[in-house]
Every structure is written in C-alpha cells, then in structure tokens.
Specification:
heterodimer; A: 358 residues; alpha/beta; D-Maltodextrin-Binding Protein, domain 2; 2 domains; three-stranded parallel sheet; 14 helices; 9 strands; globular; B: 268 residues; mainly alpha; 74% helix; periplasm (chain A); Spermidine/putrescine ABC transporter substrate-binding protein (chain A); signal (chain A)
Amino acid sequence: MKSLINLSIAILLVCAGLYFIAEKLEPSGGKGSKDTITIYNWGDYIDPKLLKKFTKETGIKVIYETFDSNEAMLTKIQQGGTTYDIAVPSEYTIEMMIEKDLLYPIDHSKIPNLKYIDPYYLDLPFDPGNKYSIPYFWGTVGIVFNPNLLSKPLTFESWNDLWDPSLKNKVFLVDSAREVMGMSLNSMGESLNAKDDKLLQKATEKLIKLSPNIKGVIGDEIIPMMENNEAAVAITWSGSAADMMAENEELDYAVPKEGSNLWFDNFVIPKTAKNIEGAHKFINFMLDPENAAQNAEYVGYSTPNKAALKLMDPEIANDERFYPPEEIKNRLEVYENLGLEWLGKYNEYFLEFKMSIK
Amino acid sequence: MRDRVAKGPLIPYLLWIVFFVIAPIALIIYYSMLDLQGNFTLENYKRFFSPVYLKMAFTSFFYAILITFFTLLISYPTAYFLTKTKHKHLWLMFIIIPSWINLLLKTYAFIGIFGLYGPINAFISVFGIEPKQILFTDFSFLFVSVYIFIPFMIMPIFNSIDKLNPSLVDAARDLGASPFTTFRRVIWPLTIEGVKSGIQVTFIPALSLFMITRLIAGNQVITLGTAIEQQFLVAQNWGMGSTIAVFLVLIMFASMIFTAKRTKGGRV
C-alpha cells in the first residue's frame, strides 16, 4: 500500500513537471513580439530567399512553419496555444474560419500593393470584399496525361474524353468528393456547386459508367505515380500537375472547356496573431510585383499578381495550361460552401461511386 | 483489511478502463445519436441501413474474413514447422522482425514492388509476359494485408503448439491414428486457443483497415474504416462517423464472443 502511495505521488510529480515544461514550451509556436512574425504555410510554398530579403528590409525576423493539410492547420489554430501571424489556407477553409470567427479583418490601407492584383481574383464569394484574405496563388482542377501512353490521340478538351473506352484501367482520380463529383457535373455542363439531388444522382450514374477506366482513387501518391508512368491520365489540381510535369517531361496538362474548379490559397491573419502590424507588412511585401514574380517562378503555381506576370519569364506567364485564356477562365467556378448537409450528400454519392469500381 | 489490500492495486486499472475503454465507447454512442445540428436523433442509424452503407459493411466483413482465412492458412503450418526446427526462437524472431517496421513504410514499399515498372513486372517480362496490373487489385490488397497480419497470427499459434506435449502426439500415433486423425483429434483441439487469439488479433484490425485500402487498393475496396475517416475529416459529420464506429464495435464484440474461451462443462 505504501509503495502504491509513493508511486501515485511520483506520477503526480511527473505530470506536474511535464505540465510545467509544456507551459514553457507553448510559446515556441512563435515568439509573438514586435520584431518577429510567425508564418504558417504549406511545405515548399515560398522562395526562402524572400524571407531573408524581408528581414533585411524591415528588420522583422521570420519564423516559418509548415502544414500539409487545411484540416491540420485549422485544428492547430482552433486549439490555440500558437501565435501564428499569417496562415495560407485554401478558399473553403477561409470561409469556415470566417464563420468560426478565427480571423482578423485585413486593413487594406496598409497593403497598397493590393492594386497589382488582378481584380478577377478579388471580391469572390468565399470572402466578399477580401475583408479577411489576400490572394497568394490560384489554380485549377484539370487532367494530367501522358500522350505517349494513349492508344488514341485524345486532347482532353472535354471532360467526356475520360469516358473513352480506349482508356480502360488508365485513369487515376484524386480521392476527394468535390473534385470528382464536380468533374462529373461539369462534364454534363452543370455547375460544380449544384444543390439538386436529381442532378447529383445523374452525375453519380455517369461516374459509375466511368468505373471501368478507373485504375485507382488515391491521394498525394498520385504525384510520384504519374511521374513513374503508372497510369496515362489523372485528374488533379494544377499545382500537383506542375510538380509532376517538372519531373516527367512527357506529361501534359489540360483544363477542359466545359469548365472546372478555380481554387485559391490566400493570406489570412488568424486571431492567434501577436504582430498584426508585421503581418500586414509581410503581405504587402509579398504582393510587390518583383517579389511576387520571383516567388511564382520558384513555386511554379499561378500568381494572381498581374504586374508580376509582366516581369516573369514569358514562357511561364504565357503558358495557357496554367494561365488559361479568357474563354476558359470565364467558365471556372470557385467552390461555394455547400453547408454540411450537402457536403455529406456529395460524400455519400462519391462513396457510392467508389464502391462501384472493380 | 484483507479486502482493501486486494482492491487497492486494482484502482489504476479500473480508472484506466473507465477513462480509456468505457468513456470513449459511451462518447461514440452519444455522438452517434446527434445530427449535424447537434440534435438528438436516430436518423444516423436509419441511414446506416441504407443500401450504400450495408453493402460497405458487408464488403468490409467479407474482406476481413478472407484476410483472416488466408493469414491462418499460411500461419498455422508455418508455426507448426517452426516448433519442429532446431533454433525455433531464432526463426520466430526472423518472422517477427518485419512487424517492427512501420506499417505505412511497408505499404509504400509494396507500391514500388507491385508497380507497372516494379521488380515483379520486370521479372515476369523476362519470360515474355506483358506487364500486369498488380497494384490496385483485390489480389494486391489481400496479399499486403495478409503479409502484415502473419506475424500477429503466428505468435499465439506458435506458443500453443510449442506448449503441446509431444507425448500426446506419440500416444495417438502408437494407438494407430493416421497423421490426419492425429492432427484433427489431438493437435488441432489442443491448439485451438492459440488459433482463436490469432483470429482475434487479425480479424478485428482487418475490419477497420483504412490506409491500405487507398494506397494498395486505390479505394476499389471500401471498408468501414475508410468511411469513418471520410465522415470525420471530410464530411465533418461526427454523428454518422460515430454510428459506423458503433457498428464496428458491435461486430468486434460479436467476434470476441464467437472466439471466446468456452469452459467445458463439468471440468471447470
């Protein structure tokens, strides 16, 4: 009995000690003072030279941390205990963060460089008037394909090319309900934000007809697999496509003419921020055309900064695959927040489709 | 006084069971009865009995049974012959060592091995056979799952065969039983407890496998585990996710009861 009491006391002491250490460690998610800012961004999503340049110009030190999914980022910011001054979520997450009151409004007067952003990318439904977010990069959902592995010369100008019987067991899909359901809706000329059971049912039936062509429905593994020519065709985001094409030069990317998804990763200032002034300075710095051009060339995604585009290598800036022409751009749609009920329905239809693959 | 001495050391275990076994299950049941708005409802259970989810539960169950069956088919003879070798514990260790490697790491290795340009296809193409689609098939899913569970199945079976008194086998043979009868009437009944624990540690995790379904089967096999992950992370419908989990827990209970030790009448 005595040893048991001793043991309990020892455990309590260890717990108290651990708690104390944790308390001490907590602020390491950023120092949170006037001369540092903490940035929370996707991995490999900024030119590190720009961070150094920023410190040199403003004297503000940068602490840079990375995340690998919107959900992980959201959870970490929601839990608190961090002092991130800037985060870079995608548009649907921004909408959620606004709803949950996790963001500070952005003071546009402190970001004069906002004038360089193409108005096409401003004032979108997920953040009207850009009250809480400033565009960083954007992209599309499209088709990556390897022309050398096709037995029939398909161009993928239309989503319906995917249903071609010559593609039997040659197509990868990304494991995400909205992308795949949206693709099917688009192929029928419908909106990828459709809230109509009949339409979704039709889209699912159409997808089930696609199942003989499906090789797998996978996640980020799609990138190395396409690089290794495991399949001829994949539906994915333009950003992943750029990564694949950098490794495998045979690959090509197309955004079908029926329309597709337009996505954004934007700067936001979470409520955990300690250096709001510094955060504004950083956003303004990144929007400077010269810096934005350098960053876009490093990262390889599409920049919304039209002044930066003029400074960039014309071969990149005129690449219609990543900067689609006006007529296609007009058919791109941003995901609207469908609400949890419809999100659930999209997922259930997607599940039904996945179960039909054999 | 004697009572207190006996109960005192149990307290940590009781606390453990309350906090980490009973409380989570109670929470899962509680959440399973909430809808998206947090209202009390049985709607989730009704939805579970729709064709989509029932079919999924059935496939999960079916694949888990297949995986367990093949794992047993390979493990029992392996364990049996292991006990007959000279350095049996050394050999056993060689079989157990791969289970020290992280599951995901092994899975990724299989992606490379099974790939169109992987070693297996390179090997068969030597014989002039066209590269075959191995990854993202039922075969690859079963193969990798069985591979992963084999060490867990071998361990308990090995122990029970090892404990088997060899003179019993000799006696059966001396009394004229054929090798098959010896196995059926003596070896198998005496090692059945090892087989049962082996089935438990294989069948239950096999029901909720989820990373392998995506990485190796390319989501062509959908298990209850995949659906739970989707409901929590993507659809953010904790209620529905919990409902599926409740059924998973129920199936697990059922399989535990099915494989539980039976006290033989009159001989307790």
